[in-house]
Design a protein that fits this description.
By secondary structure, the protein is of the alpha+beta class. It has one domain (33-69, 77-210): Jelly Rolls. The chain is built from 4 helices and 12 strands. The chain has helices spanning 3-6, 52-62, 95-112, 186-189, and strands at 32-35, 40-45, 66-72, 75-86, 118-124, 131-134, 148-154, 157-163, 170-174, 179-184, 190-194, 204-210. Strands 1-2-10-7-12-5-4-3 form an 8-stranded antiparallel β-sheet. Bound molecules: 2-oxoglutaric acid and fe (ii) ion. Fe (ii) ion (FE2) binds next to loops. It comes from Nostocoides jenkinsii Ben 74. This is Putative alkylated DNA repair protein. InterPro entries: AlkB-like (IPR027450), AlkB-like_sf (IPR037151), ALKBH3 (IPR032854), Oxoglu/Fe-dep_dioxygenase_dom (IPR005123). GO terms for molecular function: dioxygenase activity. Residues 115-213 form the Fe2OG dioxygenase domain.
């Protein structure tokens, strides 16, 4: 079944998206901001995506998930998660993702000055899957403020943040349907990670929306 058959993305868009009780897929976006040092910030909108179950199931089933390999020093190693990246021009696996991206983009574009146009998808199969400390520093995010918006689906995991060059780490919970947005200088002055966990957890999918040329 196509996503649009199970989610009503009908009259949604921009900030007042789907406020009627009719059951639009997501509500008005009014995230809570946590300012961080060095001009970084994190916005959180818990449970922003309603009825996230359908999107989670559809992405789990339909995305051609790929094992990630990464050059590390002189070896190519398996990165413990599966990924699939969609740029602006290619078809995305579900129309709902475009709707969600457009709504998030509409919220941040006035301050950011450009839209969010790509979707990076990650699948953490269980608690042993993870991503190590890093900034999304490919492209302009190395030099300029940017926004990386992350929609979480499935099992709850921790997204940890720590200042570059050392300092206490902060832990944010990313649960089913939550939106977490890193902004300002976050990609160049802070690092983020999804740590492994010994808790018994099922799969988690994250969808990262970014401006063109940021990765
Ligand atoms: O899964 C997440 O929430 C974070 C993913 C991430 O940081 C990345 O792929 O760059
Ligand atoms: Fe990242």
């Amino acid at each position: 079944m196509a996503l649009q058959d199970v989610l009503d993305f009908g009259e949604v868009g921009a900030d007042e998206a789907g406020c009627d009780e009719g059951g639009a897929a997501f509500g008005a976006l009014a995230p809570m901001r946590t300012p961080l040092a060095h001009g970084a910030w994190v916005d959180i909108a818990p449970g922003w995506l309603r009825r996230a179950d359908e999107l989670y199931a559809a992405l789990l089933r339909d995305v051609p998930w790929k094992a990630e390999r990464r050059q590390m020093y002189d070896a190519v190693v398996d990165v413990p998660r599966l990924t699939k990246f969609y740029d602006a021009a290619e078809p995305w696996p579900h129309p709902g993702l475009r709707e969600i991206c457009a709504a998030v983009s509409a919220h941040y574009q006035p301050s950011l000055g450009e839209p969010l146009v790509t979707a990076g998808l990650c699948l953490y199969r269980d608690g042993a899957d993870s991503v190590a400390w890093h900034g999304d520093r490919i492209g302009r995010s190395r030099y300029h403020d940017t926004v990386v918006a992350i929609l979480s689906l499935g099992s709850t995991r921790t997204l940890a943040l720590r200042p570059m060059g050392g300092g206490a780490s902060l832990k944010f919970t990313t649960g089913h349907g939550d939106l977490l947005v890193m902004g300002g200088s976050c990609q160049r002055t802070w690092e983020h990670a999804i740590p492994k966990t010994r808790d018994v957890v099922g799969p988690r999918i994250s969808v990262q929306f970014r401006p063109a040329g940021v990765r």
